[in-house]
Design a protein that fits this description.
Blueprint (H helix, E strand, L loop, with lengths): L4 E4 L5 H9 L7 H9 L7 E6 L7 E10 L2 E9 L8 H15 L4 E7 L3 H9 L3 E6 L9 E7 L9
Parallel strand pairs: 4-5
Antiparallel strand pairs: 1-2, 2-3, 3-4, 5-7, 6-7
The structure holds coenzyme A.
Length: about 160
């Protein structure tokens, strides 16, 4: 397990976010990130980053929290491919959950590709469950699973 420093992201972190995006098939669009982090947009988004505790690889992953009606919405969660399966995604998600509680949300929602079994395993471990399927949601026609969890998030222990 790797324990990163988790902190809010600023516009200065943009190059590192784009580096992580470039190596991932599931990333958040650059123009949206630029607009959110520069403060130009009216979107209520919070960007959290997992930072290395040593200087050579500053940003290891990031997550974006937004809002959908009265619930928090996890809009993105990406970990640098070289640092996966070391608990960073889980810690970022827990931090997103803490922020969502602070913002007085009672539930956290997300959409995930049906084929993304790794992410679904992580979300299930963090107490999310699948609600509905949105057929053909993604541009390649793939279905999205809508998952949600009550806040605060709880880590499900293995049976
Ligand atoms: C999904 C993602 C964020 C997970 O990040 P991560 O740091 O590797 O996740 P963690 O190490 O915290 O994993 C926690 C648990 O989730 C589950 N899990 C995570 N990735 C998994 C995988 N590829 N296969 C199976 N289970 C997985 C496991 O139960 C894992 O616990 P374990 O390693 O003790 O078995 C990362 O794989 C990623 O960035 N993928 C590309 C972007 C993406 O798909 N984002 C989500 C949808 S937008």
């Amino acid at each position: 397990m790797y324990v990163p420093d988790i902190d809010f992201l600023t516009f200065d972190d943009l190059p590192d976010i784009l580096r992580i995006n470039a190596a991932s098939s599931c990333s958040w669009p650059e123009e949206v990130i630029r607009s959110d982090l520069s403060g130009d947009s009216n979107s209520e988004t919070t960007y959290l980053g997992a930072f290395a505790t040593t200087a050579e690889a500053p940003l290891l992953g990031y997550a974006v929290l937004g809002r959908e009606k009265r619930a928090g919405l996890l809009m993105a969660l990406v970990v640098d491919a070289a640092y996966r399966r070391r608990g960073i995604g889980r810690q970022l998600l827990a931090a997103v959950g803490d922020c969502a509680v602070y913002m007085r949300f009672r539930r956290l929602k997300l959409k995930v590709r049906k084929s993304n079994s790794g992410a679904i395993a992580l979300y299930t471990q963090m107490s999310f469950s699948g609600e509905t399927v949105r057929r053909g949601y993604y541009s390649n026609g793939e279905d999205a699973i809508i998952m949600s969890a009550a806040l605060p998030l709880k880590l499900r222990t293995r049976q």
